């Protein structure tokens, strides 16, 4: 691994989580030195063991709440940070409807505190985890960054839209930060080593973990939420991106920000493959890629689901000089290898 004591240190909030842990690997491979802060509210310390197995060494880890000013200040004081990637957030859409203030407090409080500390400690670059959820159901596909954001369907989605606006307004007012908000489409898969991956606690809400748990026999059947949409086979369309491709996009985002001369700047970029896949095609591709069949039935539509969304990726190619390199089949095979590795470990319900 290429990073060393002299590598630029990047604070990775939520670095024990799904996308954060994979990004830690990409950062080290690219010569950055990640410093993880995570309160393990939606992850397990075993992610750090997985990182150690991949990297052959430990990465700095602070178990702390990103809303805890004293703890965060101590980290900024201790580490000579050059940038921040802010993954830490709660992300369960349904829970956010039931407990909106929990989401606003955590997702936005942490961002406000980070911006404050970045100013105080002269840390200039920020990459923020946003989401394609800000587009809702777009009128035209694929969605470009100019596609209007729609009023969020959930408090979770609202925290992403407001988070973007907070950064935009701070930068407009010359807050000395260079920032990119990356609007992720649907991240799936795992590191090919199967040492790290997605750890849905309880019953997975997302499609791919549900497929892998069903294939593993942990769940009797997958329900496909509706087959009467106006799509090629009637099921919803999404842009599924391998989490390692997504991880690499963060490295490119940091590099791009480091090359920017402005004192303060802000932009948003879609991070997807540019391809839309139906639910039934994801199941079929999983079965072909793994040789394992998935028991499923067609059920009613899931309230709040958008019919189809996939990214226009020309801006990410142009601005970040980045594009995806992994296929859907590879992502599903890696998700399956990870599932086989963890077995029933985290499926508590
Ligand atoms: P995740 O839950 O696996 O990771 C988030 C991590 O942040 C977890 O390890 C959790 O313990 C930690 N965390 C949460 N609140 C914290 C706090 N106050 N202090 C310290 N740590 C805290 O989620 P993920 O899928 O890796 O998502 C990462 C980011 O990307 C989130 O901001 C999420 O909203 C965003 N995002 C995710 C998806 C997706 O489908 N996974 C899509 C678009 C955007
Ligand atoms: C994908 C497709 C379902 C489960 C969510 C969040 C969004 C963003 C990405 C963070 C849909 C179908 C699913 C199942 C199914 N996250 N499905 N049976 O809905 O695109 O978005 O993750 O920002 O905010 O809402 O992802 O994985 O839940 O669903 O048929 O058991 O799979 O209807 O079409 P989604 P998903």
Write a structural description.
The chain has 349 residues and is α/β, with parallel strands linked by helices. It is globular. The strands form 4 sheets. The chain has a 7-stranded parallel sheet, with helices on both faces. A two-stranded parallel sheet has the order 7-10. Strands 8-13 form a two-stranded parallel ribbon. Helices cover 39% and strands 17% of the residues. It is built from 11 helices and 13 strands. It has a single domain, classed as 3-Layer(aba) Sandwich (Rossmann fold), CATH 3.40.50. Helix 1 runs parallel beside helix 2. The structure holds nicotinamide-adenine-dinucleotide and UDP-4-deoxy-4-formamido-beta-L-arabinopyranose (WQD). Residues 13-14, 16-20, 37-43, 65-67, 87-91, 106, 110, 129, 131, 184, 186-187 line the site of nicotinamide-adenine-dinucleotide.
Features:
349 residues; alpha/beta; Rossmann fold; seven-stranded parallel β-sheet; two-stranded parallel ribbon; 11 helices; binds nicotinamide-adenine-dinucleotide; binds UDP-4-deoxy-4-formamido-beta-L-arabinopyranose
Give the N-terminus to C-terminus distance in angstroms.
Answer: 38 Å
> What is the number of E strands?
13
- Write down the domain tally: 1
Return Rg in Å.
19 Å
User: If helices are DSSP runs of H or I spanning 4 or more residues, what is the number of helices?
Assistant: 11
Shape assignment:
globular
The secondary-structure element order is EHEHEHEHHEHEEHEEEHEEHEHH
* Beta-strand residue fraction: 15-25%
> What is the CATH topology assignment?
Rossmann fold
Pick out the low-confidence regions.
Answer: none
Structural class: alpha/beta
The CATH class assignment is Alpha Beta
Assign the CATH superfamily: NAD(P)-binding Rossmann-like Domain
């Amino acid at each position: 691994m290429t990073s060393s004591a002299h590598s630029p240190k990047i604070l990775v909030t939520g670095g024990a989580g799904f996308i954060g842990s994979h990004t830690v690997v990409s950062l080290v491979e690219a010569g950055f030195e990640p410093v993880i802060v995570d309160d393990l509210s939606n992850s397990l310390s075993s992610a750090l063991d997985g990182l150690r197995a991949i990297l052959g060494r430990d990465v700095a880890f602070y178990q702390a709440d990103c809303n805890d000013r004293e703890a965060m200040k101590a980290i900024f004081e201790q580490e000579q940070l050059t940038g921040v990637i802010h993954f830490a957030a709660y992300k369960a859409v349904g829970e956010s409807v039931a407990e909106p203030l929990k989401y606003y407090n955590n997702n936005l409080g942490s961002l406000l505190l980070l911006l404050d500390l970045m100013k105080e400690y002269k840390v200039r670059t920020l990459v923020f985890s946003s989401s394609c959820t800000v587009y809702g159901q777009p009128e035209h596909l694929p969605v470009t960054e100019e596609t209007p954001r729609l009023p969020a369907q959930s408090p979770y989605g609202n925290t992403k839209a407001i988070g973007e606006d907070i950064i935009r307004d701070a930068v407009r007012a010359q807050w000395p930060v260079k920032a990119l908000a990356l609007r992720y489409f649907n991240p799936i898969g795992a590191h090919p080593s199967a040492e790290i991956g997605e750890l849905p606690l309880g019953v997975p809400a997302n499609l791919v973990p549900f497929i892998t748990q069903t294939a593993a026999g942990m769940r009797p059947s997958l329900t496909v939420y509706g087959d009467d949409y106006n799509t090629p086979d009637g099921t919803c369309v999404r842009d599924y991106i391998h989490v390692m491709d997504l991880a690499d996009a963060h490295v490119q985002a940091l590099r791009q920000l480091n090359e920017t001369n402005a004192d303060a700047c802000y932009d948003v970029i879609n991070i997807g493959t540019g391809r839309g896949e139906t639910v039934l095609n994801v199941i079929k591709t999983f079965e072909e890629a793994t040789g394992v069949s998935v028991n499923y039935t067609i059920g009613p539509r899931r309230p709040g689901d958008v019919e189809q969304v996939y990214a226009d990726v020309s801006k990410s190619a142009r601005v970040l000089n980045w594009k995806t390199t992994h296929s859907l089949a590879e992502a599903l095979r890696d998700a399956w290898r990870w599932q086989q590795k963890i077995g029933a470990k985290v499926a508590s319900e």
